[in-house]
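Anyone else keep sequences and structure tokens together like this?

Example one:
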Amino acid sequence: MTPARSTEDDLEDIIGIATVFNDKYGDMPLNPDKARTSLRHFIQEGVVFNTPLGAIVGIILEDPFRDVTTLLEIGWYAEAQGRSGLALLKAFIEEGRNQGVDSIVLSTLTQSDPRVNTLLERMGFKETETAFTLTL
């Protein structure tokens, strides 16, 4: 399954994917209107790819302290069947190269299958940070 660069025509499909992800892993309800507005922005200004089984969303940012440009993943989810997640990741990396970024930053959830982290390490990613969340 080859990922396609997303357009506004894909918006509702990506909202559906985000809803599945949020229902599975989220601890707060998804706001579809806010998600739609944000995804529209990322499609226009960022890097978004989708397949029928998943999507990856990111934005290119300039580091405020160093001369570094980063492609920051905002969301990445694919249904387990097939290799859609890997195909999305490869398209995302290739787009980062095409855009001339210096680094790509991805996050995984503590609930993610440990094989995802192993895959990322095999692809050259290294663990650089641990995030903590305090829900108020």
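And example two:
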Amino acid sequence: MQNYTRYSKFFQNSIPALDTLTKRELLLFIYFSTKVDMPSNELRLNRSEKDKAALAVKIKPISVNNCLSKFCKKDLMLNLRGGTYLLNPNISNRSKPQFIQHLQKKYQEQKKALRVNQSGSHLEQQQEAINRLPQHN
């Protein structure tokens, strides 16, 4: 088995966003940032990976999901569904410098697509609620 060091780059302009995290949340985010795929900056998490992360940073496994939600709300990453997350490349990435601009564009496109899907879903929910209202003749 090959023994090697995993790394991730953090950017100076990410300090204000990271400063809002608790110590354990920050450790978890750093842990996840070292696990992203190169050069896609995607993080794939199944239950086993979440349990390993919880153990590594000494939190309860259920807390991992809460932290992931918080990271998404703070725009540190996007939830692409199916256990896949995309780290914000302006905060952290493991890619070579020539890929960063591509990652930034990909992140913004995914973020926009998620917003459209969420607002479309919200409109569908509103329409379903309207359809369930009693009809007055």
